[in-house]
Write a structure and sequence with these properties.
By secondary structure, the chain is mainly alpha-helical. The protein contains 6 helices and no strands. It starts with 8 loop residues before the first helix and ends in a 5-residue tail after the last helix.
Length: 180
Amino acid sequence: MEKGFANPAPLGLAAFGMTTVLLNLHNAGFFPLGSMILAMGIFYGGIAQIIAGIMEWRLGNTFGTVAFLSYGLFWETLVFLLLMGHLGWWPAPAKAAIVAYLALWGIFTFLMWIALFVGKHKWDLQLVFITLWILFFLLAIGDALGSASIKRFAGYEGLVCGSLAIYVAFTHIIGGMRKA
């Protein structure tokens, strides 16, 4: 890190991980979708990751910039897709459109995972991205088939993905702590 700049990755990873866990507790069937998940998506999953992405840009980290800005904006778009239809601002997206949205995010995530290998990143971050790639495709398949059981399974897989991101965030926090 540049002198005087903190590592923004733990913020972005924690925001992604905690929001992913919360949404996937819903997907796994533990509670309904509601304002708690939507607020977390807007503010922590969305805005906090966008801030982390801007901080990564300032440090010259292209991967971190693209990842945190993209997934922060994913959370913003997901919440707005859900809210616009619910509030009657715009018709809710068709099932095929949601499948395409999730599949496109899955393709993007797969390519980001490939970039991690080229950049020789640590295995723990690679696990976050492979589990996220699997999550997007499970959700897309579940929506395409109208399968509640696949979506519930995706929820459990998403809990693994989010938990891994939280783990990686705290390895960065602990690894970056200054000795007094």
